[in-house]
Fold:
Amino acid sequence: MRKVVSMELLGARRVKLFRPIMEREVKKLVESISAGGTAAPVNMSRMFVSLGTTVTSCVAFGKARKDDHQVELLLPLIDQIMETLGGFSLVDLFPSSKLVGLLTGAHSSLRKVHAAVDVILEAIISDHAARSSKKDGDGEDVVDVLLSIKENNDLGIPFTNEEIKALILQIFLGGTDTWTVAVEWAMSELMKNPWVMKKAQEEVRQVFNSKEKLGAANDQAWMDQLPYLQLVVKETFRLHPPGPLLVPRESRETVEIDGYQIPATTKVIINAWAIGRDPQHWTEPETFHPERFLDSSVDFKGMDFQLIPFGAGRRACPGIHYGISIINIVLANLLYHFDWELPDGITHQDFDMSEKFGVEVTRKNDLLLVPVPYIPHHPE
Structure:
């Protein structure tokens, strides 16, 4: 299944085909922020969540939330699953105890939500399968791709609607909040460190010196001209990995690591959040300093174990291309189109950066910012 996600759904080629969706929805985000004026603070946290669900819905189903009743019903249920997975309960302390799960109602609650999600996804799949005209490869959404794999037996193994539903759910659970949280933290760090904001903004505006050019900014060739913005993204992932705890692994045999004996079948959980702040690997680890990656080969793609926000090896996050693409698009547009201020009475020194633990580590308080539209001055 991971091969389907990484190669067919969220690989570099497919993400390139999804790029127009990302561009369109980010443009709407910019227009929405501009329409609100400059007097009152904007709740950027809510803006990012709305953008995330819209982009994922369009990529998965070809329709935004507001355009489809089934999608409208599905998204709150997915939110419930995320809250359940991110919360702490007695079941976490006693995972092998069926009694604890029954007494707390945790298992029953998840089963009910899953049953409701299953019904909605089955209806969405049926609607796609019933379409009289097939889309071409460039216009396919995720459900179209999965139905094509099923019909053509591309995997050479049984591939049913159950697998399709599982993959769709995986994309929503792992492909929405992760990048929206990263964008939220990137903007937070830029507000906390205005000298970094100034440098990143100057770079973006120098490269995209007209709004016409920014429309094509999301081509990778343009992004390669934004080296400092890429450093900002790296530093954001170091301090604020999308998931603080990576997907658990299980040891196949007894091994010894740094003097510790790990018995066979032990569940091992990697704390990516702690690794990114380890003073043995990072100078002034609590400081947001993108320049630390200048002339450094350290990257977040799984080859450098001091920075593994997406995991590493065969179990690394398959949606890395998708996440990085949309993060770059959002940040480039926000930095180009607006100057950003904190609400009255708040300075960058006392700007609250408190964290809230869950499946992701989010801001404890919503990110409220005042946008000031940027008007470029072009020579006559």
Summary: Strands lie at 42-43, 249-250, 255-257, 260-262, 267-268, 338-341, 355-356, 362-363, 368-373.
